[in-house]
C-alpha cells in the first residue's frame, strides 16, 4: 500500500521497461514514463536524481524489493558520487525507499518453508562482481551449511555459471540435497519445482527463476520443501512451549 500511495503522488516514473509494464495498473494516466533496457541502471538513477533536483517528484521502480539486488543502491551511490545534498531540510533532496517483497520470500512461499533457518543469498551475475569472488562465496556458504538462494542464475549471455556453481556446491554438499526452482515468483504463471542438487539441470533454469538450495537438514514432504528450525528436536511434542 505504501508503494501504491507513492506511485500516486509522483510526476515521473522511471524504470526498466518490463517493470513499467507491470506497474501500469497502478499509475496515473497523466504520469510521465521513462523506460530503458537492461544494463542501464546507472542511467536511470542519474535521470531520476536530475529530475528530482529540478523539483519533480520521481519514482524509480524495480522488481521485488528495491534494496535487494535492485535500484535503491545505485540511486544512493550516484547521489553520494555527485555529492548531492541529501536530507529533509528545504532545498535538500529526499530519497525514500519503499520496501517491497523480495523474490526470495515469494519463492520460498511457493516451495513450502525452505528458508526457516539461516540462509544466504548469492547472485551468480558476474557483470558487476568478479566471478572468482562469487565462487569463493559459494564455497564458504556450502561449508557453513547455509540454505543458499541463487539470484540471477542464468541468462542468454551467462550460460555456464549455474553449472559451475553446482560443481562447487557438490564439493561440500550431498547430491541428494533438495533444490527448489521458483519461477516468476508472485507473477502470473508462477511455478515451483523441487529437484536435488545432483539432478539439477542448469539448462532448465532461466533468468526469472530463483534457485533455493537446502542445507543438510532440509527435506521434502509431499512436494513441499522444508528446512526445520529445530522446534521438534528441542521441544518434542509439547504444544505449550512459548518460544
Topology diagram in text:
Blueprint: H1 2-7, E1 12-16, H2 17-23, E2 32-36, H3 41-53, E3 58-61, H4 71-81, H5 103-111, E4 112-113, E5 119-123, H6 131-143, E6 147-151, H7 161-170, E7 178-183, E8 191-196, E9 209-213, E10 219-221, E11 224-226, H8 231-235
Parallel strand pairs: 1-2, 1-3, 4-11, 5-6
Antiparallel strand pairs: 6-9, 7-8, 7-9, 10-11
Helix pairs in contact: 3-4
Q: What is the count of helical runs?
A: 8
CATH fold descriptor of the largest domain:
Methyltransferase, Cobalt-precorrin-4 Transmethylase, Domain 2
Oligomer: single chain
Number of domains: 2
Poorly predicted tracts of residues: none
Name of the CATH class of the largest domain: Alpha Beta
Class per helix and strand makeup: alpha/beta
**N-to-C CA distance:** 31 Å
Question: How is the biggest beta sheet arranged?
Answer: 5 strands, mixed
- Give me the side-by-side strand order of the main sheet: 5-6-9-7-8
Query: Which band does the percent of strand residues land in?
Result: 15-25%
Q: Give the overall form.
A: elongated
Rg to the nearest angstrom? 21 Å
Question: Could you estimate the helical fraction of the residues in percent?
Answer: 25-40%
Strand element count: 11
CATH superfamily of the largest domain: Tetrapyrrole methylase, C-terminal domain
Mean pLDDT: 93
Topology pattern, helix = H, strand = E: HEHEHEHHEEHEHEEEEEH
What is the second-level CATH architecture of the largest domain? Answer: 2-Layer Sandwich
Amino acid at each position: 500500500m505504501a508503494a501504491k500511495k507513492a506511485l500516486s503522488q509522483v510526476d515521473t516514473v522511471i524504470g526498466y521497461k518490463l517493470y513499467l509494464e507491470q506497474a501500469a495498473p497502478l499509475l496515473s494516466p497523466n504520469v510521465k514514463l521513462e523506460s530503458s533496457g537492461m544494463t542501464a541502471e546507472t542511467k536511470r538513477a542519474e535521470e531520476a536524481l536530475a529530475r528530482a533536483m529540478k523539483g519533480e517528484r520521481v519514482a524509480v521502480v524495480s522488481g521485488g524489493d528495491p534494496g535487494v539486488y535492485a535500484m535503491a543502491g545505485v540511486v544512493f551511490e550516484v547521489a553520494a558520487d555527485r555529492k548531492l545534498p541529501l536530507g529533509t531540510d528545504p532545498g535538500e533532496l529526499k530519497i525514500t525507499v519503499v520496501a517491497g517483497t523480495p523474490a526470495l520470500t515469494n519463492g520460498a512461499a511457493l516451495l513450502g518453508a525452505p528458508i526457516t533457518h539461516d540462509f544466504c543469498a548469492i547472485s551468480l551475475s558476474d557483470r558487476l562482481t568478479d566471478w572468482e569472488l562469487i565462487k569463493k562465496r559459494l564455497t564458504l556458504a556450502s561449508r557453513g551449511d547455509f540454505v543458499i538462494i541463487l539470484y540471477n542464475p542464468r541468462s542468454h549471455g551467462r550460460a555456464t555459471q549455474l553449472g559451475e556453481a553446482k560443481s562447487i556446491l557438490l564439493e561440500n554438499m550431498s547430491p541428494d540435497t533438495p533444490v527448489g526452482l521458483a519461477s516468476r515468483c508472485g507473477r502470473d504463471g508462477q511455478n515451483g519445482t523441487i529437484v536435488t542438487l545432483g539432478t539439477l539441470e542448469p539448462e532448465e533454469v532461466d533468468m526469472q527463476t530463483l534457485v533455493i538450495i537446502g542445507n543438510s537438514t532440509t527435506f521434502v514432504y509431499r512436494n513441499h520443501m522444508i528446512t526445520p528450525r529445530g522446534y521438534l528436536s528441542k521441544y518434542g511434542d509439547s504444544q505449550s512451549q512459548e518460544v
